[in-house]
From TrEMBL:
Positions with biased composition (Low complexity): 243-266
Protein name as annotated: NAD(P)H dehydrogenase subunit J
Region (Disordered): 1-289, 338-357
SUPFAM superfamilies, sorted: Nqo5-like
Domain of life: Bacteria
GO MF: NADH dehydrogenase (quinone) (non-electrogenic) activity
Organism: Bacillus salitolerans
The organism's taxonomic lineage, starting at the top: Bacteria, Bacillati, Bacillota, Bacilli, Bacillales
Length: 510
């Protein structure tokens, strides 16, 4: 060769020739496809591209090898030798660039774009660019819409992301809701625009309770005032009202006595007691006489009310005397009925209870192990003949513990516990059950009413925890050793114990 060329120039020439050859083959293939009408559907566009790229690589590599062989044989000073692998990599890279360039040109021709192809980009880059453009367009449209709705200026604000726009919209909605709530509260309370200091839940409760008490006191005062106004009416109207009330009370009492006598007569007829039947007849006669007397008194009161005369004090005295007589008659009838029922009970008590052997067994075992610790024992016929043990106040816990842990008794389940106010004293009643023996027993103890207190059974039976709290809450009985002796139904600030016979409501609302 007259003019030696560098290796780089030779590479460029080889690449250019490979490119021209590839373009020529593509043009020939296109002309053939145009003549045939369409490309065979057997191969996809991607497969054709891969095949063309592979063929272009092979042709380029072949030509490059031939040219290098010619140049290495002709030139006296060969260029720096390169390995076969490096040459292959360079040829492959150039073939890829040529194939990508041809693909870009083809896409430009198909889409009607200009003849100068744009910068080559991969499929992933094109996707990312199109997604970014779509996001920018959407954000721009959203900004323009918000600007139109708010009436802002034509110059759009700085573009914001979708998340920032969402946060701003949520913040604006919260501010608007808070503003509306504040306005509503201000309108309801009628107070000034400056809100008062926040109050605790307890203070609000106290204020509500005070308001309720004040309202109740106001209603009570209004009622008392109305009653006072009614009392200011004339003495004749008061006397007439008293007479009518007395007559109505007599009639009501007579009807009640008649119903009671009828029920008693029916019971005696079923039992076949001749004496009871005679008593029923007497009771009926007494009730009829009382009803007749009540009717006469009612008629007399009505006549006096119509006449409008009579001395008020005399009528009052008569009403009192009639009430006393009526009470005495009712007491006599009750005593007679009680005597007959007591006789029937005595007959029933003559039959031994099926649980008497169990009671005898319990008393015997307790006396053998604990000594004289029981105050009394009996069969409670009013409660399914349950054997009942009455403990002394100082032996109550000891007996309960023995009932649970003794192998012969084994009362491991506490089914019920409650307290009762008998005015003169209080009682605590406990019911136990033995799953081992399938038997029941009741244990009760009498305690002082002024200072009611007894040992807690919560250490022995967990089931005694809440019932003891209930007895404390409603009766004021204090259980020594209880793990948490507090009110269970009423609030801690409640005054008094509602199940005591002398309970008086402290709260005016009750």
């Amino acid at each position: 060769m007259s003019d030696e060329k560098s290796l780089e120039q030779q590479k460029k020439e080889a690449a250019q020739k490979a490119k021209e050859e590839a373009m020529r083959r593509i043009a020939e293939k296109k002309s053939e496809a145009t003549e045939e009408g369409a490309i065979s559907p057997e191969k996809t566009k991607e497969e054709l591209k891969r095949e063309a790229a592979a063929k272009a690589k092979e042709a380029a590599a072949k030509r490059l090898a031939e040219k290098q062989a010619q140049e290495s044989g002709e030139s006296e000073e060969p260029a720096a030798e390169k390995t076969k692998e490096e040459l292959k990599r360079e040829a492959a890279a150039k073939a890829k660039e040529a194939a990508a360039k041809r693909l870009a040109e083809k896409q430009a021709q198909e889409s009607g774009e200009s003849e100068e192809p744009a910068a080559e980009k991969t499929k992933e880059e094109l996707k990312r660019e199109s997604a970014a453009k779509a996001k920018e367009a959407a954000a721009k449209r959203l900004a323009e819409k918000q600007a139109q709705e708010s009436g802002e200026s034509e110059e759009p604000a700085a573009e914001k992301t979708k998340e920032e726009l969402k946060r701003e919209a949520a913040a604006k909605a919260k501010e608007a809701a808070a503003k509306r709530l504040a306005e509503k509260q201000a309108q309801e309370s009628g107070e000034s625009g400056e809100p008062a200091a926040e109050k605790t839940k307890e203070e609000l409760k106290r204020e509500a309770a005070e308001k309720a008490k004040a309202a109740a006191a106001k209603r009570l005062a209004e009622k008392q005032a109305a009653e006072g106004e009614s009392q200011q009416e004339g003495p004749e109207d008061i006397d007439v009202a008293k007479q009518k009330a007395a007559a109505a009370a007599k009639a009501k009492a007579a009807a009640a006595a008649k119903a009671k006598a009828a029920a008693l007569a029916k019971q005696n007829r079923e039992s076949g007691d001749a004496e009871g039947s005679a008593d029923d007849e007497k009771a009926k006669a007494v009730a009829a006489a009382k009803a007749k007397a009540a009717a006469a008194a009612k008629a007399k009161a009505a006549a006096q009310a119509t006449a409008g005369g009579g001395d008020a004090d005399d009528e009052k005295a008569k009403a009192i005397a009639a009430a006393k007589a009526k009470a005495a008659a009712a007491a006599a009838a009750k005593a007679k009925a009680g005597a007959s029922s007591d006789a029937a009970k005595e007959k029933e008590e003559q039959k031994p209870s099926p649980n008497q052997p169990y009671l005898d067994k319990y008393v015997k075992v307790i006396k053998e192990h604990l000594g004289d610790v029981l105050e009394d024992s009996y069969i409670n016929r009013l409660s399914k003949d349950v054997p009942t043990l009455v403990a002394k106040q100082d032996t109550y816990y000891k007996i309960a513990e023995f009932l649970k842990f003794n192998e012969q008794l084994s009362f491991e389940y506490l089914s019920e516990l409650h307290g009762t106010d008998f005015v003169t004293h209080m009682e605590v009643y406990v019911h136990f059950y033995s799953y081992k023996n399938r038997q029941s027993v009741a244990l009760k103890v009498k305690i002082d009413r002024d200072e009611p207190g007894i040992n807690s059974l919560a250490k022995l039976w967990e089931g005694a925890n809440w019932p003891e709290r209930e007895a404390y809450d409603l009766l004021g009985i204090k259980f020594t050793g209880h793990p948490n002796l507090t009110r269970i139904m009423l609030p801690d600030e409640w005054v008094g114990y509602p199940l005591r016979k002398d309970y008086e409501p402290y709260d005016v609302e009750v």
